[in-house]
Every structure is written in structure tokens, then in C-alpha cells.
Design goal:
- The chain is mainly alpha-helical.
- It has a domain of 109 residues: Helix Hairpins (Orthogonal Bundle), CATH 1.10.287.
- The protein has a two-stranded antiparallel sheet.
- The relative contact order is 0.07.
- One of its GO terms (biological process) is sleep.
- This is Ion transport domain-containing protein.
- It comes from Glossina morsitans morsitans (Savannah tsetse fly).
- It is a multi-pass membrane protein.
Length: 403
């Protein structure tokens, strides 16, 4: 158990190293190694761009590297919050402006008359200017981070960056559609794609280690989550079918379950213990099925949840303990490989038979020095005549002393 816990801890620390949760300022040597300027750094031949590129990257991508980076991080979080707040408030009725049309009609006596018709409401013009300012900052930030990134392929493939430039691109696409496709009948449906901008909240993972740990917890608990969804789907289908036929056994003029697909919604709401009350069984057999459905939902959800909670507690506790260590002592030691099987009759350097060819002077396979010069190989080789004679002489001397 101790060895298994040790291996699990090493794997956890390796995952935390990949998450890059360090909040301390990296050294110049680490930055040069990260950007591939290590040789030029040791030679002292760094160019102006090689010196500025790591600094620009640290300013915009590592919020805890310096005070200036913290200020830029605060500005970035401010624009993210303003953008999300503007996106939500512009849908409020008090924040919208009615679109009124003057329609002229012909009356019965032949004269013309007009009346005002409110067809729709539009967001206030102030929200448009706020979005322009926010997206100008997001565009500038993306371009600077892309130009100064150490690896542009990894930058493009990063999930957070994909959300970032898709959300920014959706703003410019929305402008083009409003300019050229506003006369279409279903133009309002195109505004649905602007919901991608709400995904900018995932950019806060660069500023919060807790969000990184939460996302990593879901990744590590993928099997438990898949098992949870499978059990829920299985229970939903079973209880939806049961309640559909249970409500039809007795006379029920107010039956809410006219089909099994409608029962799927009721089973989902019941198993997740939400219970909206829009659909309820009204017969005794249906109530019994509903009680079984609620109990099965509680057990199904309660069983995998502790595993997910324990994973989050494990990652969080390791992160807190790792943050208290000095930075030089945070590296993960390599896992020692298991020793090869010992060959019978093999002789080690210490003269102990059966220690194996990889045994070192300390007697542990793989931990001691394995390189030997030619002279040492000749001494320890079983084929050496001098070595065999020396062993025979030592054995005869020991036997004589014992006699």
C-alpha cells in the first residue's frame, strides 16, 4: 500500500507540473530554455528580440511573474467581466430601445392616416461601444500572445485559446451580418451564435489555479462521470417506461404521461431530485414507481460523487503542499525501474553469488554505479583464470582455518 501510494503521488505531482501552477517569477535561464535560446544565453549573444520575447510573453501569459504582469492580468479580467456583464444586461427590457415604425393607411372616406407600430426592441447603443472597446483589447491580447508565444502550434491547439479567438471572431462576424444580412426574415437567429462570447469565462483559468484543478479533476474522473451518465440513462429509460404503463392500468382521466418520451423528462427530473412538479403520477401504482425512481436516483448519483470529490481534494491538497516548498525542490524524482531477475550462479563485484549483473556495490539493483573499466571487468569476470585461482585459494585458506 505504501509503494502504491508513492507511485500515485508521483503521478499526481507530474500532472501538477504539466498544469504549470507556479506563481513565482521564472529565472532568466528557465525562460531561455523554454524559448529555445539556451545556447545563445550561455554564449551571451542574445538579440534584442530574443530578450524582449520572453518578457512580453511573461507580461501577457504569466500574471504572477511581475507587478506589471499583475496589472495586465487585472486589466484582462476587468474587460472579461465587463464583456460578460454587457452581454447579460443588454437583454434586459429596461436596457432596450423600442424600434417604432410610422405606418400610413388609407381610411374609408378616402383620406390617409398614420399610426405608430412597435415591431421589436434593440439593445442600447452604449452596449455596442462597450463591446467594441472590449473586443479591441481581446484582439490586441491575442495577437501579442501569438507573436510572443514559445510554441505557436501548441498555442493554436490550446482549448482556452480556441475559445478566445472564436469568441472574438464572432463579434466581427456579427458586425458583418448586421450590416449585410439584417433584412433577412430569420436574422435574429444569427444572434444565437453570440452566446460563444460567454465562454470567455474559461480565460480566467490562467489567473486561478483552482479552476485548473477543477478542470483536471473532471479529466481524471472521466470514467466515474461516464459511469454516472450511463446509470442515469439506464434508469431514465426504465422508469419512464414503467410510469407510462403504470398510469394506464387504472382509470386516470388527467394522465400526464401520454407517451414514453414525455416520461423521459419526468424520470430525469425525478432521478436528479429536482422535481419541478409539471408532471406527476396520479395513480397508486404510478406513485410507487415514482418513489422507486427517486430512491434509485439518489443512490445512482451518490455513489460516484465521493470519488470525484476525493480526486479534487487530492489535487488541491498536493497543490497547497507543493506551493509551500521552495521552487528548486518541487521537481518530481524519476520512478526507479524494477530490478531485473537474479540469475543463479552469477557473481557480483562483492563476490556474492546470485546478485545479478546489474547489482552495484551498495547491493541494490540499478542504484549503484554500473560502469566499470576494463581492469575491473577482468577481475570480476568468471572466465578469468586469475580470478578463479584467487577464489580457490581463499576457499582453501578458510577451510584450513576452520579445521
Amino acid at each position: 500500500m505504501t509503494y502504491t501510494q508513492h507511485r500515485d503521488t508521483q503521478e499526481t505531482l507530474a500532472v501538477l507540473d504539466r498544469l504549470d501552477l507556479d506563481t513565482e517569477k521564472p529565472s532568466e535561464e528557465e525562460l531561455a530554455r523554454k524559448f529555445g535560446f539556451e545556447e545563445d544565453y550561455y554564449k551571451g549573444t542574445l538579440s534584442w528580440w530574443q530578450e524582449m520575447k520572453p518578457r512580453i510573453w511573461s507580461l501577457f501569459d504569466e500574471p504572477y511573474s511581475s507587478n506589471a504582469a499583475k496589472i495586465i492580468g487585472v486589466v484582462s479580467v476587468f474587460f472579461i467581466c465587463i464583456s460578460i456583464l454587457s452581454f447579460c444586461l443588454k437583454t434586459h427590457p429596461d436596457m432596450r430601445v423600442p424600434f417604432v415604425r410610422n405606418i400610413t393607411v388609407r381610411t374609408a372616406n378616402g383620406s390617409s392616416a398614420w399610426f405608430l407600430d412597435k415591431t421589436q426592441t434593440n439593445a442600447h447603443i452604449a452596449f455596442f461601444y462597450i463591446e467594441c472597446v472590449c473586443n479591441a483589447w481581446f484582439t490586441f491580447e491575442i495577437l501579442v500572445r501569438f507573436i510572443s508565444s514559445p510554441n505557436k502550434c501548441e498555442f493554436i491547439k490550446s482549448s482556452v485559446n480556441i475559445i478566445d479567438y472564436i469568441a472574438t471572431l464572432s463579434f466581427y462576424i456579427d458586425l458583418v451580418l448586421q450590416r449585410f444580412a439584417s433584412h433577412l426574415e430569420n436574422a435574429d437567429i444569427l444572434e444565437f451564435f453570440s452566446i460563444i462570447r460567454i465562454m470567455r469565462l474559461f480565460k480566467l483559468t490562467r489567473h486561478s489555479s483552482g479552476l485548473k484543478i477543477l478542470i483536471q479533476t473532471f479529466r481524471a474522473s472521466a470514467k466515474e462521470l461516464t459511469l454516472l451518465v450511463f446509470f442515469l440513462v439506464l434508469g431514465i429509460v426504465i422508469f419512464a417506461s414503467l410510469v407510462y404503463y403504470a398510469e394506464r392500468i387504472q382509470t386516470n382521466p388527467h394522465n400526464d404521461f401520454n407517451s414514453i418520451p414525455l416520461g423521459l423528462w419526468w424520470a430525469l427530473v425525478t432521478m436528479t431530485t429536482v422535481g419541478y412538479g409539471d408532471m406527476v403520477p396520479k395513480t397508486y401504482i404510478g406513485m410507487f414507481v415514482g418513489a422507486l425512481c427517486a430512491l434509485a436516483g439518489v443512490l445512482t448519483i451518490a455513489l460516484p460523487v465521493p470519488v470525484i470529490v476525493s480526486n479534487f481534494a487530492m489535487y488541491y491538497s498536493h497543490t497547497q503542499a507543493r506551493a509551500k516548498l521552495p521552487k528548486k525542490r518541487r521537481r518530481v524524482l524519476p520512478v526507479e525501474q524494477p530490478r531485473p531477475p537474479r540469475l543463479p550462479g552469477a557473481v557480483s563485484a562483492c563476490g556474492t553469488p546470485g546478485s545479478g549483473p546489474n547489482s552495484g556495490p551498495m547491493g541494490s539493483g540499478g542504484t549503484g554505479p554500473r560502469r566499470m573499466n576494463n581492469k575491473t571487468k577482468d577481475l570480476v569476470s568468471p572466465k578469468s583464470d586469475e580470478y578463479t585461482a584467487m577464489l580457490s585459494k581463499n576457499r582453501e585458506g578458510k577451510m584450513a582455518s576452520l579445521l
